[in-house]
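Write out this protein's structure.
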Amino acid sequence: MIIKTEQIITMTDANQNFSKASKTAEKYGSAVIFKNNKPKYILADIEQYIELTEDEKIEIVAKRILSKHINAFKNLAK
């Protein structure tokens, strides 16, 4: 695993300023918390780890198309 220096947070910083750690995780996808100068924990933005199934993706796209063109679909249904 490659760790960018921007992702590194000390355990002390994480304890005293959790919002800094969470903002780092949000910006870079994860924050690596060091304890005793070694990587110990990862704080991750869960949205980057949750993947949609193909059916869920199709459902989202279908809802967008339906809501965008609802009048056309209503006219076709007549």
